Amino acid sequence: MYIRRAAPDDFDEILYVYDYGRQFQIDNGNPGQWVNGYPWPWLVREDIVKGSCYVCMTDDHRIAGVFTLFDGRDPTYEVIDGAWLNDDPYLTIHRISSSGICHGIVKFCVDWVYAQRPNIRIDTHSDNSVMRHVLPKLGFKECGIIITHNGTPRIAFQKCADA
């Protein structure tokens, strides 16, 4: 597998991956995280245009996963009920999803991001038992609760070299 920036031609397949991810969350007891079509098509297109959308590709060039990567302070993470592990420059992973065609996508993506900068933040819904189980296995520490753009709480995690 390999990771590359998403291209405009990937748009329809990325929407499919997010559709799959929404249904996976519902099937696994998390119907409240990605509601009302989130991540919305306009947001996906914006992520692609900005160069912040990445795809995880299989060796036969199929999209196995997608995520958005932000470099710099994330306004959503400025206020936390808890404490971050450090205040060093970090990368933020948002909107990560698998297409379901292979296993280990979150680990592969996290490892790739960590190789870019060993200080990562991510958040998830309290009902997302899959991510709440996977993130600590990948070295993330639970740091507290943040509030998203729509006013809902999320559990915030951080992975860094000095923790």
Please tag this protein with its features.
eight-stranded mixed sheet, 29% helix, single chain, globular, alpha+beta, 163 residues, Aminopeptidase
Could you characterize the architecture of this molecule?
This protein is an alpha+beta fold and 163 residues long. It has a single domain, classed as Gcn5-related N-acetyltransferase (GNAT) (Aminopeptidase), CATH 3.40.630.30. It contains four helices and eight strands. It has an eight-stranded mixed sheet with strand order 1-2-3-5-6-8-7-4. Strand 2 and strand 3 form a beta hairpin. The longest helix is centred in the N-terminal third of the chain and has 17 residues, at 11-27. The radius of gyration is 15 Å and the shape is globular. The two termini are 28 Å apart.
Beta-strand share of residues = 25-35%
The CATH superfamily is Gcn5-related N-acetyltransferase (GNAT)
Side-by-side strand order of the widest sheet: 1-2-3-5-6-8-7-4
Uncertain segments of ≥5 residues (pLDDT<50)? none
Short description:
This protein is 29% helix and 30% strand.
Map the helices and strands.
Elements: E1 2-5, H1 11-27, H2 41-50, E2 53-57, E3 63-71, E4 81-82, E5 91-98, H3 105-116, E6 119-124, H4 129-137, E7 141-147, E8 153-160
